[in-house]
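Entry 14. Ran structure prediction on the chain below.
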Amino acid sequence: MRLNKRKSGFTLIEIAVVIGILGILLGIGIPVFRNSMANRQLDASAEELAASLRYTQQIARAEGSATLDFTRPPSGLAAFRGYSIVDSAGNIKRQSTIPSSVNLSSGPGNAITFNANGTTNAGGDITLSSIVTTRSKVVNIVQATGLITVR
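Output, structure tokens:
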């Protein structure tokens, strides 16, 4: 009487098929993940910019005027991808950087100044666009009312 001993484990073909399937899934998943991360950075950058504009508006209402400046780098930095919030005395209240995957184009100019009543010197659109995907977000400032929206 012969005992049938069965060996456990995987054959080389089974392992090759699994590795092939994993390769296909990774090939599809990595670009999707990369685009998703870029979209999240774009959304977060737009919301942060809108919040910074609203904060600048609050400082202006309290102190008479305040400016969100896209050209004023922190001391010691030659290149700066971001913006600074400056009060009426010229003090920097807050600084934010823009991720390298996001481009910013300011329609209202290099600086947006809010007055004591919360209105601004220049309304318009600030466009943030992703360099990874084709998406963009627009932060709109209404000059007459100071209303700030993200679309």
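The two ends are 79 Å apart (CA to CA). Will compare against last week's run tomorrow.
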